[in-house]
Amino acid sequence: MQNTIKVGMADLNVCVAPDVLTTLGLGSCVGIALYDPSSKISGMAHIMLPDSTQIKNNSNLAKFADTGINELIAQMIKLGANRNKLVAKIAGGAQMFAFTSTNETMRIGDRNVEATIKILNNLKINILAQETGATYGRTIEFYSEDGRLLIKTIGKPNKYI
Amino acid sequence: MSKVNLDDVDSLHMDVLREIGNIGAGNATTALSQMINARIDMGVPQVNLLEFKDLAEIIGGAETPVVGILFSLEGDVSGMMMFMLELKDAHVLVNLLCGGDSGVGDEFTEMDLSALQEIGNIIAGAYLSSLSTLTNLLIISSVPYMSMDMAGAILSVPAIEFGKVGDKALLIESCFGEEDSISGYFILIPELASYDKILNSLGI
Q1: CA pair distance A7, B19, nearest whole angstrom
Q2: Has residue A149 got a pLDDT over 90?
Q3: CB contact under 8 A, B56 and A11
Q4: Contact B163 A101 (CB under 8 A)
């Protein structure tokens, strides 16, 4: 029996095969799917901001790239995943509005992606694929059975990465 | 220390925010009614303080296609304001204004898009000017930025702004129209310091 587990905004979840993790309507947030191919344990986080240390109110770990990824890894290890075998796929980080201003807060999508890549690199987790940036929203589904990440967008064909 | 903590808004603050929403949405509806030259009824706005993961559910799900029109605010109150409506309702509004009969499957023409942007401009302008009059604070809004996409994706922009200060977002929903009732959502995201200014100016 395959269950589809939803991950909301500023939320994370883990599962084992054959379950599917999904997060709907990613905008400037980044969806991070981590996967251990040997145990088929996977996890997904939907982060909103790059860095928990820049924000006072940071009790929700899943809200930030740094604490979100660490918490995701911890929960996956608890389920039995092998830390050294983890690989990643990421999506999201779009710029939803065409601001003319160069204001840093308006580049939040890019900053989320940059932070996510940097943190994964530091943790020596290989990023197998990414579908990031641009100006459109994405719904993503991660299949823990085979590690595929499905990307759905409005007005474009579905795509697996 | 800021007076307002969005994760723990007391009922007085909630009432004030609701009232601001009420007056703002009322003015916005009047402006819209004049623009399309028809009577528009408005329901009592609902003010909701929502957790991020529930935010998109109220619109009808994170994948519902919506139109979002965003303004950045400067002056005494800085932050963002967004007016959002479902794509199907955007078609209804554009049809009322331009006399077409487009539906959800149809592409908007250049003319439609510019009409929508103008609707957003007028609605937001009316909303902000009532807030400005009420509080006696200067609020300058940017030009409108419009985007059409999934509700979750559009909402991520204001949600991220709220996310910097708390774990909840404030959403004001107002319904207008009688038969094919249109729901519009206002999302006002003042910076935390601006909340204090608004409440202070109202003597709270």
Answers
A1: 34
A2: yes
A3: no
A4: no
Query: Which chain A residue has the Cα nearest residue B79?
Result: A105
Q: How far is A41 from chain B (nearest CA, A)?
A: 23
In the set A29, A73, A76, A108, the catalytic residue is: A29
**B94 located within any domain:** yes
Chain A residues closer than 8 Å to B168 by CB: none
Residues of A in contact with B68 (CB under 8 A): 96-97
Annotated domain spans of chain A: 4-160
Q: Chain B closest CA to A55's CA: distance in Å?
A: 6
Summary mean pLDDT of chain A:
91
Residue A87 has pLDDT above 50, yes or no: yes
User: Is B131 inside a domain boundary?
Assistant: yes
Q: Clarify whether A29 is annotated catalytic.
A: yes
Specify which of A24-33, B69-78, B113-122, B129-138 reaches the highest per-range mean pLDDT.
Answer: A24-33
For the stretch B17-66, pLDDT in tens is 777 777 877 887 788 778 777 777 777 777 777 887 787 777 778 889 99
Pairing mode of beta strands A41-47, A30-36: antiparallel
Asked whether the beta carbons of residue A25 and residue B151 sit closer than 8 angstroms, the reply is yes
What CATH number is associated with residue B48?
Answer: 3.40.1550.10
Q: 64-93 in A: which are within 8 Å (CB) of B?
A: none
This complex has an ipTM of: 0.88
Whether A27 and B155 lie within 8 Å, measured CB to CB: yes
Q: Report in angstroms the alpha-carbon separations of A86 from A23, A66, A91.
A: 20, 16, 17
Q: How many domains does chain B have?
A: 1
Whether B1 maps to a domain, the answer reads no
What CATH architecture does domain A4-160 belong to? 2-Layer Sandwich (3.30)
Range of the domain at B108: 6-201
